[in-house]
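Cross-posted from the bioinformatics board.
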Amino acid sequence: MRILTLAGRRLAASIPTLVLILIGVFVLLQFAPGDTVDALMAQMGGGDATTAKQLRQYYGLDVSAWAQLGNYLWRLVRLDLGFSAIYGKPVATVIAERLPATILLMTASLSLAFVFGLIFGVVAARGVNRWPDTLISTLGLVFYAMPTFWFGLMAIVVFSIYLQWLPAGGFEDITVGLTGWRRTLDIASHLVLPTLTLGLFYMAIYLRIMRGSMLEVLTLDFVRTARAKGMDETRVVVRHVLRNALLPMVTLIGLQAGTMLGGSVVVESVFSLPGLGRLAYESVIQRDLNTLLGIVFVSALLVILVNFIVDLLYARLDPRITTGG
Amino acid sequence: MSFLKLYFRSPPAIIGLVLLILVLAMAATADWFYPRDPLALAGRPLIWPFSNPRFLLGTDNSGRDIAAQIFHGARISLLIGLVATVISVFIGITIGALAGYYGEWVDTALMRVTEAFQTLPNFILLLVLVAVFGSTITTVTVAIGIVSWPASARLTRAEFLSLRNREFVQAGRTLGLRDAKLIFGEILPNALPPVIVYASVVMAIAILLESALAFLKLSDPNVASWGNLIGAGRDVLRVQWYVSAIPGVAILVTVLAVSLVGQGLNDALNPRLKGR
């Protein structure tokens, strides 16, 4: 129960941050050349000034910027993200359509990064400065230095074009109309390459952190005690070291949630996945500022949510957090 | 002297330095080897690498020399990386120093702003900035600097928090030094080393961010950027995959070099942490 109160307090503290972000980005967008109506008129092939004026009135763009901001925040309280003139749908609907692909991609990549980062980190730390460590650390460095989109393109060349094992893009095969399990398998096969592309970069970070944190914990007194009791090495690592060494890894999830969401913009563009990141890119190209603001809001919300979950996990791993206060 | 000795003791640091010198040499000799505009039409499009001695690395889909773009691209990447890093570290140090030195409400307010920047995915903020201010090389560089300062701000703040009540600062205060003099003249030099080492991470990220932006065709199209070339090569990926592959290797080598040198500096400056 205490865990929930603590994490809840952190959650409440993030509301001012969220408001700050929205105001900041809203003010920023006021500097953008042309508003939604300009973009809309350009799409319609031009129009006269009266139509533009009517449209501005319709979208509430005829009042001062501060009044617009007030209106926007008030609508947000009622969970109304406004209307996307470009897509002809409420922004909330547009985003809701794109959210599943991004969440799926992020969850898969994060799991891949976390699990393999952990395994490789442990293996590297146990063989420190011998060949497994050197090999893993070198690979980690290379994955870290590799631009993700480039890795994605090269993966397409190898696995989709040359070997023809996996599809090169898209979320699912819409021409066949699969249902049930077969559809799940189809989506999974479409997500293998994007997940690898996004996940390997973060795996490189996780393995480095895990290796460092393992090495640190292994020198602590309680490990020596456990060994002195005659416990075998595997048991020492699994039961005593791992739990303590995991803490920095869990912290990293919260810190990296934002960058990972940013990374999905590029990965979704490479693999033409209909996700939130690609939507952000499209709305920049089409100057759909209302949608862009909605994406900013939702992605900040996602990051806050991930951090909330991380707080809960953290308290579970380290009981001192809840008892010590 | 001992610093150099410490640095050259680690093989990865030496490899990093060699790679960095290689990239710097490419940037320095670009005008000498390829005096023509790297974005100008040079020959038949899509010549494979090593098949024509005039175009060692072949040509891209619009007949531009890939080798020339790689050499000139080294300049752009290093320039954007360096300037964006300076901007980012400068903002980070200023905000972190003020927050750490004054504490209380200044700290709370500045940390709220830092938190806001960390909560908003940096690439999405970058997209917004580019959408608003356009994508010339100057705005892109400044935008990358603006989205990547929070980590250095936190690092500086932590250093300031641990230093601000030390004897030498109290002595300075007793002598009647002004705040500005205390912050920038006394505390900052002591807080700087970890931030400078961290700058290599910022630079690596800056180079990657620019290449990603260029790949999405949102960076300056009028400069020979490696990311631009990868984006162009995407259209002919099916057969002429080398157009995308070659500039990617260049980015990989550059980012690797910067990270390895940063790691080497870190190990040499903090010998305690050796082997981690």
